[in-house]
Design goal:
The complex is a heterodimer of chains A (about 550) and B (about 325). With about 550 residues, chain A is mainly alpha-helical. Chain A has helices at about 20-25, 30-60, 70-105, 115-135, 150-155, 160-185, 200-230, 245-275, 285-295, 315-340, 350-375, 375-380, 385-415, 420-450, 460-490. In chain A, helix 7 runs parallel beside helix 9 (about 285-295). The radius of gyration of chain A is 23 Å and the shape is globular. In chain B, a hairpin with a 2-residue loop joins strand 1 (about 100-105) and strand 2. The termini of chain B are far apart. Classes of the chains: A mainly alpha (about 550), B alpha+beta (about 325). Chains A and B meet through helix 3, helix 8, helix 9, helix 10 and helix 11 of A and helix 1, helix 2, strand 7 and strand 9 of B.
């Protein structure tokens, strides 16, 4: 039963009102306040990235390039990618939900290095401001992939935007470092590795990628800046460089970065599925180790981005088979979540709607990834809208559904307020419908051969593009709903109890919102995670 | 507004059918598992919906048999995809011997083509139906990608090297040509058409207005750039004789050997110091900036056309 070590009635003082004033927030070392700082900043960048996406979709309503100058269009999709990938998706779940929950879930008062945690937010902001400066100064038009030699000669603000990504990368590294050390050193008494919530396992695996992969993108951007700024020949063949080398280095980070986005969402999924079926996650240790499996295998599949790049055919074969293997742990997770529902006590609350949406969309996103790992098929669909559809099913259908599901699940805990359940269900459905209408047609137009990053396209692709733009409009409306009712809940929402969902987990044993120190008495853990049936010994490992 | 809603692209090459068969296999696997998972999730979520506020789920922790089942079945399916995909890929990636060779150069934002008989085209490519056609592709500036959806074929045009693609058009008609790798301002304007013609029509098209052939152009450049002063048998051996070198193994000064393929020949012109042939001094200057990508392709065509001097092939 719930650990009886902490009071569950809301005390007058909590982490939100313990101190007052802007300085108390901007200089806070409380992981929960830092999470809120991240929440606000990434929401701003999400709005910006969404705006760019909206402009791109508007241009694509007609086959001609008629709304924007071609260069402006190119900047719009570049900025959409740069902002969404580096300033929303990568920090989203780890920096907001992870920052808020990791110490609580391991029964600690904070992360191992609270000051470093605050520094990581400032680095994120500095990186964001540099990239914003690049945007305001005229933008960047290389695509978020920064491929040279175009990025070497592009007349846009490549170095400034790259510098923003470079700095923000250190924020990611420091967050990963903090999580790893905290999980190793700060678990509460009795909280063994196999009693950890799967959210913690997923974030541990994510952190490994963050600290091992991010330095490589930092070096790559630095090399690009040296080539652009000082004329060194690294990637540009006219100076003796090799442009394909950049692609290897870039994807060595950026493919694992996809797992930085999706693994935390998978962690959220395990929590949601367990909480809303009131049941332990089926095959706990398989789900836990599949996170590590994805993190490790994710590092050796980058070459599948280079099947048509002139990479050796035999190297391609190796990357193809490894890419097939990385699909297995993802499949294992999906099957285990599905099996968890069997004989559960399933409620249809809003977070669960996001979880169910996630399972469906991630399944499609994952399976269409196999099309791209299959070499003979990738030749045709490479760099087409099929790829765009695939990775949006992973990044929006997967990562954003996980993020929104998690935000709805933990919102009462984080803020002490309840939002409108009815509106939350409506928004989950609107987002699901809008998402599919936007991105499903892109699979079809991709197989028809429409290349990505096209401002103009042949007439016969128009109907599918109009569908996509209509869907994006619905999706845009869907995203504004949570913004509205979340803000409303802060002002007028009823107070949340300590455990409004009747869920298991250390975070539900403390008040909503909790005090600054999380636990007034260090909890002692005597049971596995998700122990909804304490009468039965739960088999682990 | 275009009123048509096409769902499937035209298939106009000999291997388009193989790619499509693979596609349908993956679509079937995807549809099966998506429907299975969605069906189970919805079925469970309805059947096991919460009936009282304090209800909890059944204490089921896992099943090794099920874990093995849903590890091994996806593993088998993905290995089928890998092998089938590799088989189709190796067919797409390796041009058969004796293919008709056409040179393509991508530059911002056009595709320039030169046929073996000398015809030049921009943003168009005329090819005969039923013949193996091999494209040797270079880039003058940034990375482009030569993409013919109806043929299910694509390869990047990478500056600093040559890439190849091949196809055998199976149906006369006009098809889209796209640049698939983002290349700057007018990326989406770097398009054109592939015209696949019946062999007789193609012969007729060829007969109309040929310029000088790539071999002749290369020979001219060979003279203009003074390559002849070193690369000839009677000049005291300052440079290796090039007769019959193409496609042969070359012994280098460091003891290794390299096959003199298109990319080796290209590198030896642009960056002569990279690989020094055994028995020669590193005297050759770079021709970077002196010859453009089209000229390079012509020089290579000329070198490949040189008689092999009786060694036989």
């Amino acid at each position: 039963m719930p650990s009886p070590h902490a009071p569950v009635t809301a005390p007058a003082t909590n982490y939100l009102n313990a101190t007052h004033g802007l300085a108390s927030w901007l200089l806070t070392k409380d992981h929960k306040r830092i999470a809120i700082l991240y929440l606000i900043s990434i929401t701003l960048f999400f709005g910006l990235g969404g705006l760019f996406a909206g402009i791109v979709r508007l241009e694509l309503l007609t086959p001609q390039s008629d709304l924007l100058e071609p260069d402006t269009y190119n900047k719009m999709f570049t900025l959409h990618g740069v902002v969404m990938v580096f300033f929303f998706l990568i920090p989203s779940i780890p920096a907001v939900l992870g920052n808020w929950l990791m110490p609580v879930m391991i029964g600690a008062k904070d992360l191992a290095f609270p000051r470093i945690n605050l520094i990581s937010w400032y680095l994120y902001v500095i990186g964001g401001v540099l990239t914003l400066a690049a945007i305001l100064g005229g933008g960047v038009d290389t695509g978020w992939t920064f491929y040279p030699p175009y990025s070497t000669v592009s007349p846009s603000h490549v170095i400034l935007a790259g510098l923003g990504v470079f700095v923000a990368g250190f924020s990611s590294i420091l967050t990963g470092l903090n999580f790893i050390v905290s999980v190793h050193r700060m678990r509460a008494p009795g909280l063994t590795w196999f009693r950890l919530p799967l959210f913690v396992w997923a974030h541990y695996a994510t952190s490994l990628i963050m600290i091992l992969g991010t330095p490589v993108i930092a070096i790559t951007i630095l090399l690009l800046a040296l080539e652009r700024g000082l004329g060194l020949g690294i990637f540009d063949p006219t100076r003796g460089g090799d442009p394909v080398l950049f692609q290897h280095l870039f994807w060595f980070y950026s493919h694992p970065a996809v797992y930085i986005m999706i693994l935390p969402a998978m962690g959220v999924m395990s929590e949601l599925v367990a909480a809303f079926s009131r049941k332990n996650v089926f095959g706990y240790s398989f789900v836990a180790f599949s996170s590590l499996g994805i993190a490790v295998l994710g590092f050796v599949v980058w070459g599948h981005h280079l099947f048509v790049s002139s990479q050796s055919a035999y190297m391609g074969l190796i990357f193809s088979i490894l890419s097939m293997l990385v699909a297995i742990p993802s499949a294992v997770k999906v099957f285990n979540w599905t099996a968890t529902l069997y004989k559960g006590s399933i409620s249809w609350d809003a977070p669960m709607l996001y979880a169910i949406g996630f399972i469906g969309l991630f399944t499609i996103g994952g399976l269409t990834g196999l099309f791209l790992a299959t070499m003979g098929l990738d030749i045709h669909v490479h760099d087409t809208y099929f790829v765009v559809a695939h990775f949006h099913y992973i990044m929006v259908g997967g990562a954003i559904f996980g993020y929104l599901g998690g935000l709805h699940y933990w919102w009462p805990k984080m803020t002490g307020k309840l939002y409108s359940e009815a509106w939350a269900r409506v928004s989950a459905i609107v987002i699901f419908v809008g998402f599919n209408l936007t991105f499903f047609p892109q699979f079809i137009v991709g197989y028809l051969g429409m290349p990505r990053r096209y401002a103009m396209y042949p007439d016969e692709f128009q109907v599918l593009n109009v569908m996509s733009t209509a869907g994006a409009t619905v999706l845009g409306v869907g995203y504004t709903l949570p913004l509205a009712y979340f803000i409303y809940s802060l002002v007028k929402g009823p107070a949340a109890s300590a455990n409004p969902w009747g869920a298991k987990g250390l975070e539900w044993t403390i008040p909503s919102p909790p005090p600054t120190e999380n636990f007034l008495v260090t909890p002692i853990v005597t049971e596995p995670a998700y122990n909804y049936n304490p009468g039965r010994e739960v088999e682990v490992a | 507004m275009g009123r048509t809603l096409p769902l499937f692209p035209e298939a106009a090459s000999t291997f388009a059918g193989n790619v499509d068969a693979l596609y349908f296999f993956l679509v079937a696997v995807t549809a099966f598992f998506s429907v299975l998972i969605a069906g189970l999730v919805i079925f469970f979520a309805v059947k096991f919906r919460r009936r009282s506020p304090d209800e909890v789920g059944a204490p089921i922790t896992g099943s090794l048999a099920l874990e093995l089942l849903w590890t091994i079945i996806p593993l088998i399916l993905t290995m089928v995809m890998f092998v089938w995909g590799a088989w189709v890929f190796l067919d797409l990636a390796r041009p058969p011997r004796g293919s008709m060779e056409i040179f393509v150069v991508g530059k911002q934002w056009m595709w320039k083509v030169q046929h073996p008989d000398g015809q030049r085209e921009i943003n168009e490519l005329h090819v005969p139906v039923g013949r193996n056609v091999r494209l040797t592709i270079g880039s003058e500036d940034v990375i482009h990608s030569y993409y013919i959806p109806a043929f299910r074929q694509k390869i990047d045009a990478v500056p600093g090297k040559l890439t190849t693609m091949w196809f055998n058009a199976s149906k006369a008609g006009e098809y889209h040509l796209f640049c698939a790798e983002y290349c700057g301002t007018k990326h989406s304007g770097m398009i054109g058409r592939i015209v696949a013609m019946e062999p007789d029509d193609f012969e007729q098209w060829l007969a109309g207005g040929a310029g000088s052939t790539p071999v002749a152009g290369g020979e001219q450049l060979f003279t203009d750039l003074a390559c002849v002063t070193c690369h000839q048998s009677d000049t005291g051996g300052r440079g290796p004789v090039l007769n019959g070198i193409a496609g042969k193994a070359v012994l280098l000064a460091d003891g290794s050997t390299v096959v003199a393929d298109d990319n080796y020949l290209r590198e030896s012109i642009m960056n002569p110091q990279a690989k020094i042939v055994a028995g020669y001094q590193p005297l050759m200057p770079t021709f970077q900036g002196l010859v453009n990508e089209e000229g390079l392709l012509q020089l290579i065509a000329y070198i490949k056309s040189l008689p092999s001097g009786g060694s036989g092939y």
